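Fill in residues.
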């Protein structure tokens, strides 16, 4: 582990969290290739937390990238095989839907374009040092890239799409697109093209890039179309990492991050969007929500942004906020009380910790 001058106490804390993250990723990577968001059957999983033993291809893709960083082998290829051979309707449609049961049946059929883009990014990342090896997953790459293109209509998707938070929809008749979804698809198509060049994929990625330029008006909107949603959403950080559609120094990105910090950061904890109410807590049959907490994945995401910008102190500010509030497992949300119960550990949270640790130099590139 490269600590770049970190003190011994911090070094030990990070090392422990790295090893815990390794354990969580292994626990969530099942024998049949599925990578679940959380393994609810482990003794450490809170009894009152929501059931999360589903496969979200997006979450699993981030877990695969974290596994690459940790030099964990095998689970990535097994997951790619699961995507190709088990995910319901993938061979038919070429896209992944909201989430799946472990056996591959759909748990929800909502179309979330970023799921497919994220899988293509994960395949590219795993083989980026030798892209010829990715040919073993040629069917996955071709079908997924073609699937994105088949559902694209020049400036919007031709069917209703669901955002990554699974709380909003964009409609074809309004020519709406979620910013995060487009960014993920741009990256996915460009990654597919790097593996096996295809002019159509480049063309569609270019159309999506062009459309994304319209999504900016003082900051990047959550949704743009005939009826745009100008709400500020922390997922706009995806424009920089991992999708790299814009530079971290792009004035539009800088303006968006300033807006995120002004509206969504509370005492250094990063929230998804204004007035978020989701807490993931199942207390009784009334499902009493008490308001959302801060999301570790977003703290780590903002840390990655500032690390790429070269502002290490700022990056550590958001990174350490999480580490100072968790003992072992990193949850989906952090609440400032002992009553609300979050999913813990969340595989995506641990994956983002690993990625942020690499960006900060605590893990080798």
């Amino acid at each position: 582990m490269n600590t770049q001058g970190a003190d011994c106490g911090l070094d030990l804390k990070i090392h422990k969290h790295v090893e815990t993250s390794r354990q969580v990723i292994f626990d969530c990577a099942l024998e049949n290739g599925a990578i679940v968001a959380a393994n609810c059957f482990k003794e450490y999983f809170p009894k009152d937390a929501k059931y999360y033993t589903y496969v979200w291809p997006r979450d699993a893709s981030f877990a695969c990238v974290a596994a690459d960083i940790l030099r964990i082998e095998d689970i990535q290829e097994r997951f790619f095989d699961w995507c190709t051979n088990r995910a319901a309707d993938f061979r038919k449609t070429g896209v992944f839907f909201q989430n799946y049961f472990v056996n591959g049946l759909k748990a929800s059929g909502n179309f979330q374009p970023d799921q497919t883009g994220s899988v293509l990014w994960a395949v590219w990342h795993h083989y980026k040092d030798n892209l010829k090896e990715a040919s073993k997953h040629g069917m996955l790459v071709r079908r997924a890239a073609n699937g994105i293109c088949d559902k694209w209509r020049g400036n919007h998707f031709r069917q209703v799409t669901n955002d990554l938070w699974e709380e909003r929809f964009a409609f074809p008749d309004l020519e709406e697109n979620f910013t995060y979804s487009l960014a993920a698809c741009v990256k996915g198509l460009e990654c597919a093209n790097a593996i096996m060049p295809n002019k159509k994929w480049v063309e569609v990625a270019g159309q999506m890039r062009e459309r994304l330029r319209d999504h900016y008006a003082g900051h990047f909107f959550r949704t743009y179309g005939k009826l745009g949603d100008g709400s500020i959403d922390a997922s706009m950080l995806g424009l920089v990492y991992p999708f790299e559609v814009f530079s971290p120094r792009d004035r539009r990105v800088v303006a968006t991050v300033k807006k995120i910090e002004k509206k969504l950061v509370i005492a250094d904890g990063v929230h998804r969007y204004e007035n978020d109410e989701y807490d993931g807590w199942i207390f009784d049959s009334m499902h009493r929500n008490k308001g959302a907490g801060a999301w570790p994945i977003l703290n780590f995401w903002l840390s990655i942004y500032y690390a790429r910008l070269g502002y290490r102190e700022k990056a550590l500010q958001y990174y350490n906020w999480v580490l100072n509030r968790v003992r072992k497992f990193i949850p989906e949300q952090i609440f400032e009380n002992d009553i609300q119960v979050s999913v813990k550990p969340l595989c995506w949270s641990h994956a983002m910790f690993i990625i942020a640790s690499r960006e900060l130099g605590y893990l080798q590139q």
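The first strand starts at residue 97 and ends at 100.
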